[in-house]
């Protein structure tokens, strides 16, 4: 018989697992890993003549994508074009970024799998006599290691030609040059920290769902068990 067991700790772990998976996925897909050096708009001179002001824009560069501004003939219309600069995996700008993409993708796949499974932990608490929370916590720890490897390798690719074109000639491995780090990089770091927190907290979720109070309510014949 299926018993629906909901506790504060198990629900918090489930929510954190889902948030972490989405955060890492969004960061990976974003082009805001590096914010390039400021470039003047092609219409800046015209704006100065007419008394207006057009601040220089800063293009952004991700692991496989980029965002840049395209100025049209009307000068008053300027669009930001975002999309992948690499049509396939081999065209990613640096071998280090290729390795980063692999490690991050593996970590994110594991996190998404755990996030999906975590939704069903209210009904299923064990798999082959092993706690599903402990299994998921172990997988989250492995995913965290993949994410760390990817984030460590990523700055090693700052010396590639693509990064130099955005960050200036002084950019090199682990040196940003004229660039700055974008929100996607910090989001990936924050998501990695939360991944390990989730891995540790999964043990608390397992304790909460197998406590004596839960067992007592199961023995009383209750199918829906909600505990603080």
UniProtKB/TrEMBL annotation:
Its annotated compartments are: Membrane
Question: InterPro entries annotated for this entry?
Answer: LHFPL (IPR019372)
This protein's source sits in the domain of life called Eukaryota
Entry's Gene Ontology cellular component terms: membrane
Q: Which GO terms describe its biological process?
A: single fertilization
Q: Which family does it belong to?
A: Belongs to the LHFP family.
Q: What is this protein called?
A: LHPL2 protein
- Source species: Nicator chloris
Gene encoding this polypeptide? Lhfpl2
């Amino acid at each position: 018989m299926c018993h629906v067991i909901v506790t504060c700790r198990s629900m918090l772990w489930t929510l954190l697992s889902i948030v972490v998976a989405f955060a890492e996925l969004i960061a990976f897909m974003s082009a805001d890993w590096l914010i390039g050096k400021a470039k003047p708009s092609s219409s800046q001179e015209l704006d100065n003549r007419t008394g207006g002001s057009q601040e220089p824009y800063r293009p952004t560069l991700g692991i496989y994508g980029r965002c840049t501004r395209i100025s049209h003939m009307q000068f008053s219309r300027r669009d930001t074009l975002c999309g992948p600069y690499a049509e396939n995996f081999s065209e990613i700008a640096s071998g280090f970024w290729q390795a980063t993409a692999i490690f991050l993708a593996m970590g994110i796949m594991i996190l998404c799998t755990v996030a999906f499974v975590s939704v069903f932990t209210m009904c299923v608490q064990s798999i082959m006599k092993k706690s599903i929370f402990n299994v998921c916590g172990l997988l989250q720890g492995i995913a965290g290691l993949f994410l760390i490897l990817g984030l460590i390798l990523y700055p090693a690719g700052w010396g590639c030609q693509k990064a130099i074109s955005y960050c200036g000639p002084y950019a090199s491995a682990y040196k940003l040059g004229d660039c700055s780090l974008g929100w996607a990089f910090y989001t990936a770091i924050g998501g990695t920290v939360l991944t390990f927190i989730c891995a540790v907290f999964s043990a608390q979720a397992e304790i909460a769902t197998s406590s004596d109070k839960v067992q007592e309510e199961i023995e009383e014949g209750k199918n829906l068990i909600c505990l603080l």
